Amino acid sequence: MNRIWREKRSVHICALVFALIMIALILWTVRENELQPVSLAVSAVLGVLAVLIILLKKPGGAFAVVLNLIEIVAVPFAAMMMVQQFTLDPMRIYPQMIAVNALFVYLFYLLVSAIAGSFSLGYTIASFLLLLLGLLNYFVVSFRSSPVVPWDIYSFRTAFSVANNYTYAVDWKCLLSISAFVFMMALGWKNTWRIRSVLARVLISGLCIILLGGAGYLLQKEEVQDALSMDTILFTPNVRYRNNGFFAAFIGDIHLIQVEEPKGYSQEAVTELLGEVGEEDIVPAETLSAQKKPSIIVIMNEAFSDLSVLGKLTVSEDYMPFMREKMKEFGGGNLMVSVKGGNTANTEYEFLAGDTLAFLPEGSVVYQQFIHDNVPALPSYLARLGYETTAIHPYLASGWDRDQVYELLGFRTFLARDSFINPSILRGYISDKSAFDKIIEVFEERENKDQPQFIFEVTMQNHGGYSKDTADFHEEIRLTDLTYSNTQTRAAEKYLTLMKKSDDALKELIGYFEQQDEPVIVVMFGDHQPSDYITNVIAHLTGYDADASLEEHQKSYMVPCLVWNNFGMEMPKRPLTSVNYLAADILEAAGLPLTRYQRFLLRLQESLPAVSAGAYVDQNGTYHHYDEEDEAADSLLSQYQILQYNHLNDRRNRVTGVFAEPVVQ
């Protein structure tokens, strides 16, 4: 027996550690999920085999050659499929794309092995790195319902700051993938081949880098993607990653970090669309200063949504009674947004700038990718009209680079978490009640009582991590049709309970402003719906099927919006619009002057009431994909894209006046 088993104590310790890790993972999965005997058995077998392989001595002779070859060929391919298995069905990758993904993975394994000087160490390290990548993508999909994309690198700091507030759980697919990787790492460790020559290692490494770079460069070319029949539909990232495979989809998207100039774009095209803005076109300063202006309070409430848009819900009590009452009385409706489960800053940008994510690469984070100098937006424009502009965010100032971006958008003051003194805390976040109290504090303590205020707050109370138990919070709203209870259903009930607490806080805030004599507008809307692990519970109860149609799919991108005021302002009745139009709607209803760009948006809204990353809606209420042929809509969207590119991306040739100056109607 000693001929086949290794006797080193370190090997036995390593095998024991592997065994304990696998046992812990299996128990964790069993606790968090319904039992799946087949998955449990396969995971256990892979774990046992991994431990046995670790304990075996490395083979010699002809058997070693055969085993080495099998390991070298099989492990990278299996790793490629297992990265896919974490979140998607690896058997649904387009056949031609399997070879493309395999090319990148084999070159990666060879590169790491050349650097390490042995296939044993190289394959073990490469497998471990791909295991980490697969887990990262698994949790990203769990938290925001879309996969890792190249520009997520810009979001690392923000993601890290909130990572502690999420609950990390594995399902059976994840456990199978981890078990397979553990088995592959153990198997790869048994390879006996080495690359001893330093020159050979350098040459192989260099060749791998050149081939990886060249293949990656070619894969980003439109003609290559067409030749491979790649799925290039950006608004369904999960489907695209399923069809193209994780590696090809990710690498093929790298070029999208930069926005391509739209067809027909030029500075002259912008001027043709909106005209020149001369001194005679601008509202005189004395007219602006003489006009009575309302203070404008805007709350973008984290993950605030009404999940009854997915179907009729039976709950123990209404979770937003005040919001519903005021929406009927003062106007409001559903807003279509471009994100779900995360990327809050994108909804924020669409509101503040009037631009849309529809013309940007899927998964983009505008604040981090595209804003590097001043961009004309609602804060700078209202400051131009004489407003004091304040942003409030009861969390880290650095999140989504707000500490840099807010100033570039025109906010004169930014109050982050350290500006709150003894706030009430809920689930580790400052509560909406304390967040709204800060609005009142800013409003009351302003130095110039005659100066109108623009206060924009992004809340944190309802941030993800609903399955995590905390001593200060328990579910109070119940889904009464549920016949069972588990971590996910409790998380959904916690989420609905948070909506009720936000609704209660809003009632107090509006109660305060109802007592004020000066004109005030209070706006509240959500940034996105929660992640799939919450909405899946609702879908199970209501029968909601996001894949039934584009209209059904977009219901997952609906959030409620209220525009309240205390001076009789009437908002247009819009049952559905999109967040990019909202600011222009509010300014027009308030009787404030508009920019040329804002007037364009209002004209566009008449023909296309909602425009977001996932779809646009025409005046008949029909939902459309962007690749559909519609001459009239295509012309309007092309105009919008040209103007947005000049506004956001072509800062050297920006026609600033059309975005920044109040013009005479």
Task: Identify the notable features of this structure and list them briefly.
665 residues, alpha/beta, Alkaline Phosphatase, subunit A, eight-stranded mixed beta sheet, three-stranded antiparallel beta sheet, 26 helices, 51% helix
SSE topology sketch:
Elements: H1 9-32, H2 37-55, H3 61-85, H4 95-116, H5 119-144, H6 156-162, H7 172-189, H8 198-219, H9 222-227, H10 237-244, H11 246-252, H12 267-274, H13 285-290, E1 295-301, H14 321-330, E2 332-336, H15 344-353, H16 366-369, H17 378-384, E3 388-392, H18 402-409, E4 413-415, E5 425-426, E6 429-430, H19 432-444, E7 453-458, H20 487-513, E8 520-526, H21 532-542, H22 550-554, E9 558-565, E10 576-578, H23 579-589, H24 596-607, E11 610-611, E12 616-617, E13 623-624, H25 631-649, H26 656-660
Parallel strand pairs: 1-7, 1-8, 2-10, 3-4, 3-7
Antiparallel strand pairs: 2-9, 5-6, 8-9, 11-12, 12-13
Helix pairs in contact: 1-2, 1-7, 2-7, 3-4, 3-5, 3-7, 4-5, 4-8, 5-7, 10-11, 12-25, 15-23, 19-20, 20-21, 23-24, 24-25
